[in-house]
């Protein structure tokens, strides 16, 4: 326990009040689970956002172990009007990490609540707490020899399903739209009440994890990308391991091929011939994960040239676009659908690759693993591309049409180049939608690049919004600006909900731009 | 605490030892025979020559009695496997662990360490250049803005070593060796000091 004077306090809260509150919280969770010294709080500082640490510095962190402890803490926080920022595993690096949305918020770290509460092998469902990681769930299923898969995002080894779903993250198996495949939440509200959504509200029901909707308004959605409650349990659907899994890569040689790729693959995706999201990664997304050293091609400052990118393609057998998808089914159904894939690849001038040890090598392997829900950290090599390890995801959404692709790419590339950054992007055909995920990679040890990265992200956001492209997620430093792009009426409704559910504005005010 | 105060700071605190027998084999192998008295563990990324060299320089500075600490080399693949990182982190409470690795590995390592409640004492970035100067940026937790400086790649200064020594509350290098400068090869590295 520390009693050193604190230099970061919640907004509007005196040091004395804060110390009193921490003393009360220590009595609830135990002194060892409240941290307030600088070195212990450092992991809760912002990592990737290109803003000063101080902007998102936490005042303290608390690690409850149960719903009852959270309920008791909420009473204390309401009493002292202390804002709290709940995190599950806090490893959402490119979208904000564990740092609170506003300086001084108390981090509620739910990592101790890491129990896999139920796995129903017949119904293929799971019920998990916030601290459960994908790796933990994977190990559990392996250990129990259960032939069940789940969908996970790229940082899956260290991230968890509850936090990812609450942030409306996506993954790479047929269950990749994570919120869609969730079923049932338990939420501690600001006043300490515990809500179970869907069928979970009904005493005696055993359908919480199988029927999401219940009766009346479906409330689950308002607890995602919001600050109306603290989600403490989540049901999720698991996928039966298919008898036959056929991942593939199709490489295309030219940037301009992206138009026909999307138009050729969209019908297969909508008809579910391809059941998972189709990832179409540009050369520079593949290059870092193939161990290409940027400095070998572009030793100086500024954005890498098109000529250098073409040389990388040639030297390392990478496509301008690299399409990843898979077939999941029986050998018979996959054999039938495989002919369609071969025809589409041939008709569009793509090179079809099925062996992950061929072109692409490591990048292909980690993708093939992700598409079967095997956690890995292969994509982390992106952080080595620029040096300095800075990364911010910019992810606008569009219709899944070829006509949407090149203009977006050119718009992004121009803005990135203006600030000296590379275009490192991929398009993901979700179903009828398409995410254009751009990793703004920069050197976070270079103050000048930090400023440029922040300004660049800002310009990307505004320029894409002018064209009607909204981002589906963003790091917390841009929460307010992103929310503003969605117009005033939606925000007003969100504020009214906040007033109704959290009148003291204590749960993560500012998250996703929602505050009273 | 400002930067001047930081470099004047002394006193590293006592280490809380734990019986060696209670450690997983991998972690026990890292602790020197001297046990808790030498409980600073140095890890360098084996497939990054710059990381190994910088780790060796730091290990030399942190050594005692003219002997450098051992550098435990792990390649990038090992530094991304949770069970292997967990094994490295299964050291006695209070052990300080100093790592030098690429950015991606450092991010993963620190993420896993923080999940186990490790404290981040300091961290740095090192931009090695084949031509011109190497840029170092080091930051001690709670000491305000980062320290940043350039030094010629061919003439190694000892500022990085001094920085981490100061973070540990020591002022003089424990063992001076004739180790070379970190090889300049347009490489970016991260370093960090955590307390388990």
UniProtKB/TrEMBL annotation, chain A:
Organism, as annotated: Thauera aminoaromatica
Sorted UniProt keywords: FAD, Flavoprotein, Oxidoreductase
PANTHER family: ARYL-ALCOHOL OXIDASE VANILLYL-ALCOHOL OXIDASE (AFU_ORTHOLOGUE AFUA_3G09500)-RELATED, D-LACTATE DEHYDROGENASE
Domain of life: Bacteria
Keyword Oxidoreductase attributed: yes
Protein name: FAD-binding oxidoreductase
GO molecular function: D-lactate dehydrogenase (cytochrome) activity; D-lactate dehydrogenase (NAD+) activity; FAD binding
GO BP, sorted A to Z: lactate catabolic process
Gene3D superfamilies per record: 3.30.465.10, FAD-linked oxidases, C-terminal domain, Uridine Diphospho-n-acetylenolpyruvylglucosamine Reductase, domain 2, Vanillyl-alcohol Oxidase, Chain A, domain 4
Occurrences of domain FAD-binding PCMH-type (ranges): 54-241
Pfam families: FAD-oxidase_C, FAD_binding_4
Cofactor(s) the record lists: FAD
Keyword Oxidoreductase listed: yes
């Amino acid at each position: 326990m520390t009693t050193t004077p604190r230099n970061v306090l919640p907004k509007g809260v005196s040091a004395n009040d804060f110390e009193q509150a921490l003393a009360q919280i220590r009595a609830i969770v135990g002194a060892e689970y409240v941290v307030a010294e600088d070195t212990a709080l450092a992991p809760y500082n912002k990592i990737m956002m290109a803003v000063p640490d101080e902007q998102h510095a936490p005042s303290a962190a608390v690690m409850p172990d149960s719903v009852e402890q959270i309920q008791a803490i909420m009473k204390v926080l309401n009493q002292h009007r202390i804002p709290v920022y709940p995190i599950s595993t806090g490893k959402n690096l490119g979208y904000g990490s564990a740092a609170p949305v506003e300086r001084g918020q108390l981090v509620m770290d739910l990592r101790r609540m890491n129990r896999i509460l139920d796995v129903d092998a017949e119904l293929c469902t799971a019920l998990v707490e916030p601290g459960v990681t994908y790796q933990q769930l994977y190990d559990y299923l392996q250990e129990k020899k259960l032939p069940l898969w789940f969908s996970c995002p790229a940082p899956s080894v260290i991230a968890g399903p509850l936090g990812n779903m609450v942030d409306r993250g996506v993954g790479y198996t047929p269950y990749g739209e994570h919120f869609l495949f969730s079923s049932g939440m338990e939420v501690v509200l600001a006043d300490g009440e515990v809500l179970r959504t869907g069928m979970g509200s009904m005493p005696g029901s055993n359908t919480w994890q199988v029927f999401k909707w219940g009766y009346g308004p479906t409330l689950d959605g308002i607890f995602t990308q919001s600050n109306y409650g603290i989600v403490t349990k989540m049901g999720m659907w698991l996928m039966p391991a298919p008898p036959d899994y056929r991942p593939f890569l199709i490489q295309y040689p030219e940037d301009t091929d992206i138009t026909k790729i999307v138009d050729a693959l969209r019908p297969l995706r909508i008809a579910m011939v391809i059941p998972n999201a189709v990832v179409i990664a540009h050369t520079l997304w593949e290059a870092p994960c193939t161990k290409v050293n940027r400095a070998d091609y572009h030793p100086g400052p500024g954005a890498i040239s098109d000529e250098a990118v073409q040389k990388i393609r040639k030297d390392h057998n990478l496509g301008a676009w690299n399409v990843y998808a898979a077939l999941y089914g029986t050998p018979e159904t996959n054999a039938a659908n495989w002919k369609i894939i071969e025809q589409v690849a041939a008709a569009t001038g793509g090179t079809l690759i099925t062996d992950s040890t061929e072109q692409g090598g490591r990048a292909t392997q980690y993708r093939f693993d992700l598409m079967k829900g095997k956690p890995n950290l292969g994509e982390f090599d992106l952080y080595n591309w620029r040096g300095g390890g800075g990364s911010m995801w910019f992810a606008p959404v569009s219709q899944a049409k070829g006509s949407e692709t090149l203009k977006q790419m050119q718009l992004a590339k121009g803005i990135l180049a203006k600030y000296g950054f590379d275009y490192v992007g991929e398009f993901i055909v979700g179903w009828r939608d398409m995410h254009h995920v751009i990793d703004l990679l920069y050197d976070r040890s270079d103050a000048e690049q930090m400023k440029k990265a922040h300004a660049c992200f800002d310009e990307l956001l505004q320029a894409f919004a002018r064209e009607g492209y909204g981002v589906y997620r963003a790091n917390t430093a841009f929460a307010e600006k992103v929310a503003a792009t969605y117009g005033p009426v939606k925000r007003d409704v969100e504020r009214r909900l906040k007033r109704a559910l959290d009148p003291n504005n204590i749960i993560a005010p500012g998250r996703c731009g929602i505050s009273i | 605490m400002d930067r001047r105060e930081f470099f004047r700071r002394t006193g590293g605190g006592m280490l809380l030892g734990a019986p060696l027998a209670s450690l997983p084999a991998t972690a026990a192998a890292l602790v020197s025979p001297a046990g808790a008295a030498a409980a600073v563990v140095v890890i360098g990324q084996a497939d990054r020559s710059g990381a190994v060299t910088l780790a060796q320089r730091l290990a030399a500075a942190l050594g005692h009695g003219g002997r450098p600490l051992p550098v435990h080399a792990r390649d990038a693949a090992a530094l991304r496997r949770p069970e292997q990182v967990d094994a490295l982190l299964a050291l006695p409470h209070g052990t300080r662990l100093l790592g030098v690795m690429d950015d991606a590995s450092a991010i993963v390592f620190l993420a896993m360490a923080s999940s186990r409640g490790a404290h981040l004492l300091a961290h740095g970035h090192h931009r090695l250049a084949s031509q011109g100067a190497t840029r170092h940026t080091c930051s001690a937790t709670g000491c305000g803005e980062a320290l940043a400086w350039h030094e010629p790649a061919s003439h190694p200064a000892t500022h990085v070593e001094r920085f981490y020594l100061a973070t540990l509350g020591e002022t003089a290098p424990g063992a001076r060796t004739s180790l070379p400068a970190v090889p300049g090869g347009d490489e970016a590295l991260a370093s960090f000091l955590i307390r388990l």
